[in-house]
User: What shape does this take?
Amino acid sequence: MTAKYLILAKLLYVVPIVGMAAELAINPGLWETTMTRTSPMTTQSITETRTECVKETKFDPGKLLQDAQGCTLIDDNLNGDTLSFRMECNMNRAQAFVEGTFSTDGQTGSGNMDMKVNAGGMNMTMNMNWIATRLGDC
Assistant: This one.
């Protein structure tokens, strides 16, 4: 059972940084993001807040996909200031299906992602929601 958790942990690490081929315009600056996710093991909510300096003017997660072994973009759609996506990841004995969206108006952002994982016959679901606020220049 420990191997199943290790595979899941690898998927959870890779999936949030990979994504879509479309580019979403972003406003550089100091951003504070609060993310709430459900733990796939306990289904309890975990909330984390972090602040970081964003220097890029466009978010192109398609470039990050090249580093995610076993992940394939199934669909992406940029509609105004909202980016939606679907992807599938296959790693050894684990499979993950991911759907999500991210929106930004330049000063705030929000999004969600739902992940369904089958790791060695064990099915798990994880949901993530986040909100972000631009605090100003870096």
Q: What stands out?
A: The chain has one domain: 2-136. The longest strand covers residues 122-136. DSSP finds two helices and nine strands in the chain. The helical segments are 2-14, 62-65.
